[in-house]
Input
Amino acid sequence: MNQQYPSVLLEKAVGEFAKLPGIGRKTAMRLVLHLLRQDAQTVEAFAGAIVTLKREVKYCKVCHNISDTDVCRICSNPARDASTICVVENIRDVMAVENTQQFKGLYHVLGGVISPMDGIGPSDLQIDSLVERVKGGSVKEVILALSSTMEGDTTNFYIFRKLSGLDVKLTVIARGISIGDELEYTDEVTLGRSIVNRIAFTGTM
Amino acid sequence: MNQQYPSVLLEKAVGEFAKLPGIGRKTAMRLVLHLLRQDAQTVEAFAGAIVTLKREVKYCKVCHNISDTDVCRICSNPARDASTICVVENIRDVMAVENTQQFKGLYHVLGGVISPMDGIGPSDLQIDSLVERVKGGSVKEVILALSSTMEGDTTNFYIFRKLSGLDVKLTVIARGISIGDELEYTDEVTLGRSIVNRIAFTGTM
Output
């Protein structure tokens, strides 16, 4: 299909869109032709938003979450419980936990998990700054909310060792069958952990 | 989910992506965070490609296809048959026909079809310039390749009336069951037309 593009400029724009994850050349073409039908101002607003984001975005000095200011809205919010830190892998995980509206503490964004296969070691992650925060003394609990993968478990264990000896409670989010899941379709490892980590039934879930 | 975005800049970029057809807020977020992980140069190349396209793209003076030059590659190609013009709705249709590698003539891009419901009348389309091209005298056949919809049929009929009296053969692309389609799942109108417009079987398809 490539050589039949009527325009080099079109080809370039489609090529750029097609680099995005989950966007093939057909979808890229559809998106580009959609933008081409908009007026110049709309197209420049689109392009400008992403360039400005990349150029001006900051990361919170405290938790490394994305932010418009040096310290993010969550870390600087006096209504949040500064004694509890939830450790997550990335910005999307912060948003996922925020959306549950179940957590009122602060976050710590690692920027990934330990993954020797991908060449990511502890020094590539924000683990030292987490230890510093805990050493600050006001932190009572660190909740590990990483992915339930081998890399996530490795990272959990590394953080556990780094924080051992410090006066802080270390917890891990519960793993188990998802709300609404049927038992027979749950994988055996998850189901096994669910049984081992069963909790007292109090009449409500 | 809206108010929980950690950054106004992020919110803006996601909002712009979410305006694209078929892109919801979750996908928009995924795309923006992907771009955010790229280096500044990559992000600017992405944004630049679409702005440059919008700013510098030309439309062929002859056929109104997208082009980098005043007259497009197809119209200026001496190897193409200038006596046959295929009338299509938009740029994507040109590419679709080109991809079949079955057509060696030129195109004429209308820029849409007559659709009173959407406020598109004949004067909004490149119909007059088609008539001028045919009046030029070197065109022997005009192939109507519009969508098989009421609007497409209306436009076909309008062009038919405009070209009547001129010395040009007017044809319509065949409608029928698609290659590989099973008869029982074909809608009755298509199947009916297929039967009425049957062609002599010569041993090959």
